[in-house]
Design brief:
Order of helices and strands: HEHEEEHHHHEHHHEHHHEEEEH
Number of strands: 10
CATH class of the largest domain: Alpha Beta
Low-confidence stretches: none
Bound molecules: 6-diazenyl-5-OXO-L-norleucine
Number of domains: 2
Radius of gyration: 18 Å
Mean pLDDT: 96
Largest sheet: 5 strands, antiparallel
Distance between the termini: 16 Å
Shape: globular
CATH superfamily of the largest domain: DD-peptidase/beta-lactamase superfamily
Strand content: 5-15%
CATH topology of the largest domain: Beta-lactamase
Number of helices: 13
Structural class: alpha+beta
Length: about 300
């Protein structure tokens, strides 16, 4: 397992604290998501960052023990589950290309006959959830997702916030539209309401920033990772995170940060330095693409300070 490029835990803690202080005085914090009313109530002042290194250190700065809504970051865990169950057959129903469009775009889905571009845009994540739902009750599938996340984090205190799920369901017209369109094209196997309901609950999982960094360790190939996902498969999940994890901001994130990452509209980002570290950040204000504004900046600064990059 690669050492964190000669950085001691004290060096890393110093870098984290410096970034935390810089973010506290950042002038532009982005805008908190308001299309899910329960998320609109969260202050844009929060900031937390956590790093778990391959040699077992876990360092944090800011409010790293405060739970937040992981939203689309949950798509990484459901993709891992679906690939474990169906392997590459899953890609008969969902592509592996960046979409270049917003995460909740409807227009591309029609022109591409109901096959979503990738598993991280909403339509693609609905297909992934639909696949793992088939033959099961939503309750069983949500239990399986929670078990996976808890095992990855090594912590049990991870739950679904039912108010957030209900809030999204009450305003879930776009996702229902995507699901109904895919049903019309034969690419949804369960009733749209059932798939969307399960998806809203998976997005409403709450984790602390520290727990999220812990849960990401399997993606850096930490010891024991193969228990959850095979090494070949986790490379592929990382490839999808790099190319599609930030939607129409994925190229910008790859350029600025140089690491696979997955964002969520709750303001979280999980980024992976393969063989070195799992990194989580939380700052609720979003940029125009729906990715955490300061979260992106913080990981960019971390990558620059540590030299962590998949590009050498
Ligand atoms: O489906 C939605 O719109 C939300 N539950 C998740 C979207 C999301 O997190 C996009 N990421 N930045």
């Amino acid at each position: 397992m690669a050492a964190p490029l000669g950085l001691t835990p004290a060096d890393l803690q110093h870098i984290l604290d410096r970034i935390g202080a810089e973010m506290a005085s950042a002038p532009d914090r982005g805008r908190v998501a308001d299309y899910i009313p329960e998320l609109a109530r969260i202050s844009d002042q929060h900031f937390a960052m956590a790093i778990c290194t391959a040699d077992g250190q876990c360092l944090t700065t800011g409010a790293a023990d405060q739970p937040f809504s992981i939203q689309s970051i949950s798509k990484v865990f459901t993709l891992a589950l679906a690939l474990g169950r169906f392997g590459d057959q899953l890609f008969a129903r969902v592509g592996r290309e960046p979409s270049g469009l917003a995460f909740n775009s409807v227009v591309q889905l029609e022109s591409e006959q109901g096959i979503p571009r990738n598993p991280f845009i909403n339509a693609g994540a609905l297909v992934v959830t639909d696949a793992i739902l088939q033959g099961h009750q939503p309750r069983e599938v949500l239990g399986e997702i929670l078990r996976f996340v808890r095992e990855a984090a090594g912590e049990d205190d991870i739950h679904i916030n039912k108010s957030v799920a209900a809030s999204e369901a009450a305003h879930g017209h776009r996702n229902l539209a995507l699901a109904h369109f895919m049903a019309a094209q034969g690419n949804l196997k369960n009733p749209p309401e059932l798939t969307c309901g399960t998806y809203f609950h998976q997005c409403a999982i709450e984790m602390t920033t520290r727990q999220l960094a812990l849960a990401g360790r399997f993606l850096m190939g930490a010891p024991g990772a193969a228990r959850l996902v095979s090494p070949a498969r986790l490379r592929r999940i990382n490839a999808l995170m790099l190319t599609c994890g930030h939607y129409d901001g994925s190229g910008e994130f790859a350029y600025r940060v140089g690491l696979p990452g997955k964002s969520g509209v709750g303001g979280g980002i999980l980024a992976i330095a393969p063989g070195r570290a799992s990194i989580a950040v939380w700052s609720p204000g979003l940029n125009a693409q729906g990715n955490s504004q300061l979260g992106t900046l913080a990981i960019e600064r971390l990558a620059r300070a540590t030299g962590w990059s998949v590009f050498g």
